[in-house]
Each structure stands twice: as C-alpha cells, then as structure tokens.
C-alpha cells in the first residue's frame, strides 16, 4: 500500500482517488480551499479517501499526483518544494491556454513541457509524466475502449517510473499498454499531443479516447 496525495479535487483527481483507494492505497485529495484533514465537501459520499488542503496532502504522502490545471501548476507546485522533496511527483496535466470555446488551445511551454519545468524547479523531486494523452475517464477504465490504448511514461528516474507503472496496473492498465519513452524531455512529445484533442472533442464530443500507438 502506498500513501498517495492527489493535488486537485476536480474530475481527474477524484476519478483517480476512487480507483487508487479501491486498490488498497491510502489516498488524500488536496483541495485548493483550506479544509481540515478528513473533512469532506458537501455531497461527497465516497468514504474510501480523505480530503485536506494541498500542502497537507503533499506533505503526508509518499507519492504525489498533480491533477491541477496545467497552466498554473508550475507556480503552485514550486511553492510546495519542501513538501515534495524526496518524493515521486506524477504529473498528469497538460499546460495549455484556453481557446475561445474553452477547449485546450496553444501550449504554455512550446519547445519544452510542464514536466520538464517541474523537474527543473523541483530538483529533489522525481517527476514522472503519464496519463495526459486521454480523456480522464480512460485513466481508470482503459479496457472500456474498443482498441487497446497506450499510456506513456517520461522521467529521469528508472525506479520512479517502475513505481508509477505499478500504479498504472492498479488503475487497470495492462503492462503491454505501458510505453516508457525515456527521460523527462520526452514529455514534450506527449504534452504536444493535446493539440489534437480539441479537434476530436469538437467533432465527437466528450467520448472516451486515448492517443495511442497502433502496432
């Protein structure tokens, strides 16, 4: 069992929290608005994970998942440098500026990536990029797609990527669907994949999909 802090209590964060808690991990969801450890937002019925403020969630976890908006994540997580030191940070976000219709538009870090910026800003943290090339529902239900999907890993630390690959299996990903691309600089490729997403969504709506390899 791993102690996991998930920063972000939106659809992505709570979806991951439910599945990881059901797999036996101790999960704390970090919210931006300050709440006490264990305090649950109104309307929350899932009792398998707890809630706290983001600083507490990061400090008390062994592994932290960034599920906050990518365009503001760098500043937010840099402020948690002390809490994240020595830990694995799994970044599942994409840093984009919204288009006029609210869907992802231009990249915030062209020629680079959010994951690279996070690793540079947090040298004592092992950053792993993954799960950012699909609709959030596919993160925890990849087998629901008609075609076997791909999930990518980018990171400088081999041991950290192995740990994250184990979490992906807990999220019901088959090992054959996990593609290790290499060091953290490869995250700029998967983050750029977000540019195809708004066109897919405008055409087909929010239907489950993943940007995958076909072999």
Count of helical segments? Answer: 8
Side-by-side strand order of the widest sheet? 3-2-1-4-5-8-9-10
- Give the CATH topology: Rossmann fold
Principal-axes geometry comes out as globular
Keywords:
Rossmann fold, 31% helix
Ordered list of secondary-structure elements with their pairings:
Layout: E1 3-7, H1 11-22, E2 26-31, E3 50-53, H2 54-59, E4 63-66, H3 70-78, H4 81-84, E5 88-91, E6 96-98, E7 104-107, H5 114-121, E8 126-129, E9 151-155, H6 158-170, E10 178-182, H7 187-192, H8 197-204
Parallel strand pairs: 1-2, 1-4, 2-3, 4-5, 5-8, 9-10
Antiparallel strand pairs: 6-7, 8-9
What does this structure look like?
It is globular, with a radius of gyration of 16 Å. Helix 3 runs parallel beside helix 5. The protein is α/β, with parallel strands linked by helices and 215 residues long. The chain starts with a strand and ends in an 11-residue tail after the last helix. The strands form two sheets. Strands 3-2-1-4-5-8-9-10 form an eight-stranded mixed β-sheet, sandwiched between helices. Strand 6 and strand 7 form a beta hairpin. It has one domain: NAD(P)-binding Rossmann-like Domain (Rossmann fold), CATH 3.40.50.720.
